[in-house]
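Retro notes (design track)

What went well: tokenization of the new backbones is finally stable.
What didn't: we kept losing track of which sequence belonged to which structure.
Fix going forward: every design gets posted as structure first, then sequence, in one message. First example under the new rule, 266 residues:
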């Protein structure tokens, strides 16, 4: 049956989930996600990744097909013909399913967990303003943001057996989001220190689930809570993609995750 809630079980210790590689063997690393895995694929195609000693694979599906990926008996499977067709194109050798034991580590990227859904409204809430969010409300928002994402709960399950890194979908792309929407939703004066405080809160919550946060690199952020246009994808049909990122962004994310994985493998 599809995973609706994480199965009960003792939380694995950091050391118990780290699968140390044998001397001389490459690290096997999998990028899992929805259409956001494309930015890492672009980085690979553009030669921007540090893959020394790493065997990299991708697993996932775009758009509606991603909703048909479910955790069954501890492994991801496609539950529709369309999802299985997508998997066959992305990773034909593993289209039947994805199990944690197949890799030394995983990067979950995007996966319907959007930075803009938590950080942007919290950054926009200013003391003294109407509707100011108290710390108690912010804490509850964080729990709901994480636990309300089925694929985050699945990442928690994988993290019981292997190192898992999670990169939420980055802020919306500047220059494509309308200025009316920016004015309504984004605190364009939010500072790096304010963002760091929220990222730290997210990292702490994820760490309790044995997941390591890969936060949006600060050099990609502009105007308080948007992604710089230089890191936006240029592959949209009309140049109007406010969500997806390019290979330079993907390289920053994956190299950060691989660096962290190498550190725990030492």
């Amino acid at each position: 049956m599809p995973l609706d809630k994480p199965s009960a079980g003792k939380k694995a210790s950091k050391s118990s989930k780290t699968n140390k590689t044998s001397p001389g063997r490459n690290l096997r690393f999998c990028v899992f996600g929805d259409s956001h895995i494309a930015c890492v694929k672009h980085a690979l195609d553009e030669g921007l990744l540090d893959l020394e000693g790493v065997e990299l694979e991708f697993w996932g599906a775009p758009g509606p097909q991603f909703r048909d990926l479910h955790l069954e008996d501890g492994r991801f499977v496609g539950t529709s013909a369309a999802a299985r067709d997508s998997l066959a194109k992305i990773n034909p050798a593993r289209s039947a399913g994805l199990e944690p034991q197949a890799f030394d580590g995983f990067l979950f990227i995007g996966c319907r967990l959007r930075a803009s859904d938590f950080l942007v409204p919290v950054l926009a809430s200013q003391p003294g303003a109407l509707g100011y969010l108290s710390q108690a409300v912010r804490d509850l928002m964080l729990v709901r943001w994480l636990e309300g994402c089925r694929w985050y709960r699945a990442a928690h399950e994988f993290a019981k057996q292997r190192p898992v890194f999670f990169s939420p979908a980055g802020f919306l792309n500047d220059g494509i989001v309308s200025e009316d929407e920016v004015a309504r939703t984004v605190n364009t004066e939010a500072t790096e220190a304010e963002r760091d405080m929220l990222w730290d809160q997210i990292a702490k919550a994820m760490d309790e689930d044995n997941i390591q946060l890969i936060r949006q690199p600060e050099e990609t952020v502009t105007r308080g809570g948007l992604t710089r246009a230089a890191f936006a994808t240029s592959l949209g049909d009309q140049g109007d993609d406010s969500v997806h990122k390019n290979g330079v962004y993907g390289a920053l994310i994956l190299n950060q995750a691989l660096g962290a994985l190498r550190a725990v493998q030492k």
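Added context from the reviewer: The first strand starts at residue 27 and ends at 33.
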